[in-house]
Each structure stands twice: as structure tokens, then as C-alpha cells.
Design goal:
- The complex is a heterodimer of chains A (252) and B (324).
- Chain A starts with a strand and ends with a helix.
- By secondary structure, chain A is an alpha/beta fold.
- Chain A has 7 helices and 10 strands.
- Chain B starts with 8 loop residues before the first helix and ends with a helix.
- Chain B has 2 domains: 50 residues, no CATH class; 243 residues, no CATH class.
- The chains are: A alpha/beta (252), B mainly alpha (324).
- Chains A and B meet through strand 6, helix 3 and helix 5 of A and helix 5, helix 7 and helix 8 of B.
Chain lengths: 252, 324
């Protein structure tokens, strides 16, 4: 018996984040089932972020049908989507932490807000999240005082706070050095297979990336974006050089 | 080209709405150079006396009407946007009343501290100065007509009914309202609002509601302190100026001049000023997509509109006062 469909896209036109009337990717047909791990690659400017934003329910599809947890995202977009939104987590490539809160407060915010907890009541769970993502030393720092790599980890800890079933990652390893890239590849793979932090429950993960190389041995399925089109490539990651060459040809 | 407009760079560089006005003025000053070339025999130069009235009799140029029209349309759109934003905020306050109170209540307390407690010293300074200014001006006037018995009445009218709430609102607007727009505008520009939405947190509930409640309570409380401070300092300055008025007489004048309506109007006016400032500043910071370089412009617009709307509300209360 196959797993339930989490995301289903039929002839979807993806909007730009900045101009919601502008189509940036057209005719996407795709299914993501529970427990799958997808890496969506593309060169800079291939609109990966717009694609992930729409998948996470932050923008509305301009055409076609996009269902997330069997809910039509073209129609149910406001508060009625809230119960399903809490089943998803989103990690932004620029972290997008709340600048007026410390790192620990940022991690605690979703669980405190949705479960109406005090700081003390959420402290043990927040500590566990920060420990697993190695950000304990920044706990009392404001986001502006924390280097970008660690801010993105904070964004991951915050996204995991509500124990989501699906995790969307917007280009998490952009510009990172080998140490951080390796950490992300390993940690996300662990989350997909069932991390102890999530009580061993496997997650469904969709991540965008500039380069497939770091994710090659993760066991994920691969897809790519170029020329306003979406292509699935199966379990073998395309060569990054091939993607760059295709993009260069398109530009010529 | 407008009548009398010279085809040089200076005139072309003028802001379009002022071009016809400038051309009319130049007609008035230099008649020989003001008219566009005409075919001989098809027009006559008007007499000087006629020309003097030309400025007043000329129809309003089309570009000036466009300019005024654009301003009015923009004002209507702003009022519409602010109204919608205020209604959404009200709806969220009602539907999410009591939700996530362990997160929202500390935020309201923080806003109350920003819009109230931290401005207490400054407000008291302003209240002392206000007492001095009003007493200084009125004592000399009232002594001239031997009408010192009206000193308390003047203080009650000026401080309690008008200047107290308005000055407090301006203090809070300048110290907290501007900070609101900058904080929210920056948050919007840096994508924090999308982050809140991704976490299932309603940005209006988390960012706007605490500010509206905190600012309304803050301005209300500060107004009471400012009024008390100004009335007390007013008597102090009167005493220093040797006005023959005992404290008992002064306060009995005050109590005779005030009735229940004054306290109801004072409370509702000051709280509504807080709501207006919070809604306008949050609207300009949050309601539209902003880039970082646009935050300063949004701040200026928010301050100007807050002042205008507070004045309009004040005028509305005067009308109510006169009717009641």
C-alpha cells in the first residue's frame, strides 16, 4: 500500500513572491508522498524560492490545482488552513528570525504561541532543540549578533518546535562551508529517516538547493528547475556541471 | 504649453501643478513677455486694469485640478485602507480574545511600558511647563480685567478638555509611534511577517493587537498624570506670581468647571488617540510590502497622518461637546 499524498500539483503556475500576478514556473505536475525526501535543484534565479514558498502555503498558485494534505491551496488559504499549516515547518535561507527576540525566544515562539505555554514550561523542549542544532551558545543572543549559518540552524530549530510532519527547506546550505554543509546533509537525512528529536517518526522533506553535490548520498529523490519548467530526475542526482551548462545554453 | 509659459529650463523644471500659477504671476508682473505669439490682428492686448483681475477670474488650470484630485483620491484610499485595517484588527481582537495569552499579555505589558511608564518623566516635565505657559499667559490677562476667579475655569477648559490628551498623544506619537513604524516596517522588509505566517502565527494578533491595547492604555494613563501635573503646577506658578488665590478657591473653581462629561470625554478621547496612533503606525509599517529604503518614507507618512487623524478626532469631540 502506497503512502498518502502530502503535496499534489496539477498543471500549477507558480507566482513570484514579489509580484503575485507574475508566473515564474509553469505547468508543474508533481506528487510528494508521506515519508519522501525531495531535493529540488536549480541555478540562482531559477525561482526555487518562489516554488518552495508556494509549496509551504505562503503564496497562492496562479493556475492549476495544488493540494496540501488534500486541502486546495487555491481556495483555502487563510485561517482555515491553520490546522494543516501546523503540520508543516519552513526553514528560510535567510533565517527570518524575529529580530526583537533572542535565539531561545525565537525557538520557543511557535510552541509558546500555539500551546499557550510560559517560558519555563517550554524551556526543556527548547533546550533539546537547541542542543540538537548546536545553537546553545547563542541562546541569549539577539539574531543580529549571530552569524548567518547559525541563524539558519535557529530557523530549523524553530520550524521543528511544533513537531511538523512535513519540512520545507529553502536552500539551507547556500554559501555554507564544508563543515556546515555536511552537518545539514546529515541532520536532514536523519530527520527524514526518523530523528530521536521527532520521536523517531520519519518526516517528509522538500529542500531546494543550488548544488546537488552535498545531497548526492542522502538517498533523496531529485528534481530540477530550469527555463520556467519543473523536471523530476529520480534517485540519481544530476551533475551540477550539466545543470550549469544547460543554463548557460539557455542564456545564449 | 500654458499661457505665458516661457520655453526655458527653469519653467519646465517647475512642479507641474505650480506651472500655471507661476505663469499667471508672470502675466501680472511682465505683461509684454507673457503671451504666446499670436497672429497679427487676431488678438488684442488687454488693458492693465483687466490684467490685474485676470489672476482672480481665470479658471483653475486643469493640471492643478488633477493635482488636487490626486491628493483627494489618495486621501480617500488611505482612509479606506486604514478603515479596513482597523476593522481587521478589531475582528482579530474579538475572535482571538484570550488566545495565547501567555505570549500576548507580556507583549501588551511591554507596549504599556514603552508607551506609558518610560514616558512618565518626560510627560511630567511637559505638564509642569504646560502649567507655567497657561498660567503665565492667562494671569496677566485676567488681572487686567480683575477676573482671577476664572483662573481655574481656564485651566480646566484648556488642560482637561483640550491640551492634556492632545499633548500626551503627540508625546507618545513622537517617542513610540515612530519606533512602531520603523520596527514593523523593518520586520516587514526583512520577511519576518512571512516567517510568522509560516509558523501559523497571525501577524495582526502578534504584532498589532498588543500595540493597540498598550498604546490606548498608555496614552490614557499618561493623560491623567499630565492633567494632574499641569493643574498643580499651574497653581504653583500662580502662587509665584502673587495671584491672590488660595488653594481652596483654585480647586473649587476647578471642580465647579468640570462635570462628568469632561471625564468621559477625556477618557474616551485619550484612549481613541492611542488607538488611532497604533492603527496608523502599524498600517504603514505592516499593511503593504516595504523595502528597507522605504521605511523612512512610511514613518513620515504615518506621523503626518496620525497628527491629522488625532486633530480630526479632537474636532469631532468639540462638535459633540458643543451639541451635548
Amino acid at each position: 500500500m502506497s503512502a498518502a499524498i502530502v503535496c499534489k500539483l496539477e498543471d500549477v503556475a507558480v507566482p513570484s513572491r514579489r509580484d503575485s500576478a507574475l508566473t515564474v514556473i509553469e505547468g508543474v505536475n508533481w506528487e510528494v508522498r508521506a515519508g519522501e525526501f525531495w531535493i529540488v535543484g536549480g541555478v540562482q534565479g531559477s525561482r526555487k524560492s518562489d516554488f518552495v514558498f508556494m509549496l509551504a502555503g505562503l503564496t497562492k498558485p496562479l493556475r492549476g490545482c495544488y493540494e496540501l494534505f488534500e486541502q486546495d491551496m487555491g481556495e483555502h488559504f487563510g485561517d482555515e488552513f491553520l490546522p494543516n499549516r501546523l503540520r508543516t515547518g519552513m526553514v528560510f535561507d535567510d533565517a527570518r528570525l524575529i529580530n526583537g527576540l533572542t535565539v531561545a525566544e525565537n525557538v520557543a515562539l511557535p510552541i509558546r504561541y500555539h500551546q499557550n505555554l510560559t517560558v519555563e514550561e517550554s524551556a526543556s523542549w527548547v533546550s533539546a532543540l537547541m542542543k540538537e542544532t548546536d545553537i546553545v551558545e547563542f541562546a541569549q543572543d539577539m539574531p543580529s549578533a549571530v552569524p548567518r549559518y547559525w541563524r539558519v540552524r535557529t530557523s530549523l530549530a524553530r520550524a521543528l518546535a511544533l513537531r511538523p510532519e512535513v519540512l520545507f527547506l529553502e536552500n539551507p546550505v547556500r554559501g555554507m562551508d564544508a563543515r556546515h554543509t555536511s552537518w545539514w546533509a546529515q541532520f536532514v537525512t536523519k530527520l527524514w529517516r526518523g530523528h530521536s528529536l521527532m520521536a523517531g517518526k520519519p518526516m517528509t522533506i522538500v529542500a531546494s538547493t543550488d548544488e546537488f553535490r552535498p545531497w548526492r548520498r542522502s538517498g533523496a529523490q531529485f528534481a530540477e528547475l530550469h527555463g520556467k519548467q519543473f523536471f523530476t530526475r529520480g534517485t540519481v542526482a544530476p551533475e551540477d556541471e550539466e545543470i550549469f551548462a544547460m543554463n548557460a545554453e539557455e542564456q545564449v | 504649453m500654458y499661457m505665458g509659459q516661457q520655453p526655458n529650463g527653469f519653467v519646465r523644471a517647475l512642479h507641474p501643478p505650480f506651472q500655471p500659477l507661476r505663469s499667471c504671476l508672470s502675466t501680472f508682473r511682465a505683461p509684454a513677455r507673457t503671451f504666446a505669439p499670436v497672429e497679427p490682428g487676431t488678438a488684442s492686448v488687454p488693458e492693465i486694469t483687466q490684467r490685474r483681475t485676470l489672476l482672480w477670474r481665470a479658471p483653475l488650470p486643469r493640471s492643478y485640478i488633477n493635482f488636487v484630485g490626486r491628493k483627494i483620491l489618495r486621501l480617500i484610499l488611505t482612509i479606506q485602507g486604514l478603515g479596513a485595517f482597523a476593522l481587521i484588527t478589531l475582528a482579530v481582537m474579538i475572535t482571538k480574545f484570550g488566545a495565547s495569552r501567555r505570549v500576548i499579555l507580556p507583549l501588551i505589558r511591554a507596549e504599556l511600558a514603552k508607551s506609558g511608564v518610560r514616558l512618565f518623566a518626560m510627560t511630567m516635565l511637559v505638564s509642569v511647563a504646560l502649567g507655567l505657559i497657561i498660567i503665565g499667559q492667562t494671569v496677566s490677562l485676567l488681572q487686567r480685567v480683575n477676573a482671577n476667579q476664572f483662573l481655574g475655569m481656564v485651566m480646566a477648559s484648556v488642560v482637561v478638555r483640550e491640551l492634556g490628551p492632545l499633548l500626551t498623544a503627540l508625546i507618545v506619537l513622537s517617542r513610540t509611534g515612530t519606533a512602531n513604524v520603523i520596527e514593523l516596517g523593518t520586520a516587514r522588509a526583512l520577511g519576518e511577517v512571512e516567517a510568522l505566517e509560516a509558523l501559523g502565527i497571525d501577524p495582526i494578533h502578534y504584532l498589532v493587537v498588543p500595540r493597540v491595547v498598550g498604546m490606548a492604555l498608555g496614552i490614557f494613563s499618561l493623560t491623567i498624570y499630565l492633567v494632574i501635573g499641569a493643574l498643580l503646577s499651574g497653581y504653583l506658578w500662580a502662587f509665584f506670581q502673587d495671584v491672590p488665590l488660595t488653594p481652596g478657591e483654585y480647586f473649587s473653581q476647578l471642580t465647579r468647571s468640570l462635570d462628568v462629561t469632561d471625564f468621559v470625554v477625556l477618557a474616551s478621547k485619550s484612549a481613541l488617540f492611542g488607538v488611532i496612533i497604533a492603527v496608523v503606525t502599524c498600517y504603514h509599517g505592516l499593511a503593504q510590502p516595504l523595502r528597507l529604503e522605504e521605511v523612512s518614507g512610511a514613518t513620515v507618512r504615518a506621523v503626518a497622518q496620525s497628527v491629522i487623524f488625532c486633530m480630526a478626532l479632537d474636532a469631532f469631540f468639540i462638535v459633540i461637546y458643543l451639541v451635548v
